[in-house]
Amino acid sequence: MEKSTQINHPILPLLETRKSIRAFASTPVEQEKLNSIFEAARWSFSTSNQQPWRFIYAHKNQPLWQNIFDTLMDGNKPWNQHAPVLILALATKSMSNGNNYYYNLHDLGAATMAMNLQAVSLGLQLHPMAGFHKDKAIELLNIPDSLTPATVLALGYPGQDLSALNEFQQKSETTRGERFLQEEFVFNSKL
Length: 191
Ligand SMILES: Cc1cc2nc3c(=O)[nH]c(=O)nc-3n(C[C@H](O)[C@H](O)[C@H](O)COP(=O)(O)O)c2cc1C
Known about the structure:
The chain has one domain (18-174): NADH Oxidase, CATH 3.40.109.10. It is built from 8 helices and 6 strands. It has helices spanning 13-17, 31-42, 63-70, 77-80, 104-121, 134-140, 167-174, 182-185, and strands spanning 3-4, 53-59, 85-92, 125-129, 147-156, 179-180. Flavin mononucleotide is lined by residues 19-20, 76, 128-131, 151, 177.
């Protein structure tokens, strides 16, 4: 499968600028901007408008921030020490009629992408992580059985200090990730 770092067709500048950065500035995120980011989730599409997303967030100066941080896996801890906001993203497991919500993570993912683009438009970056202990999150944050912990999102302004990043992470901070060519995943034919 062929990959490249080139953008081969024009895309929205927001999509071009979005990047899962790991070096955050220590600058706090304004609550107004955070409200806009959650508002972007609010206006996302979802199956039968079920809106499965739930978020627990904390600014770095709040004790709750440490609770979210403590759920992170070791590989994610060093660079998250400087994340000004940590957000736990959760999805409801059932539809409002009690049926299993098959598309809950799909819909939550779409909402977090909307949040991501809103964040970029405000000069911020949002980095999603699956690398956290779900059982710890359930215990430390009183998550009821009706919700699936999906990702932890790190939010902040881009920073310059790469000292908390390992070699691989430092390289990835300054380069664009490779992508498969469209030929590998777009088909105008039967498979
Ligand atoms: C669901 C999900 C889980 C991820 N988990 C982690 C993680 O635990 N740690 C990490 O450093 N990056 C994580 N990432 C970021 C990806 O590595 C990143 O999106 C990918 O390398 C593409 O880079 P880009 O987002 O900068 O374009 C995750 C991304 C997603 C969508």
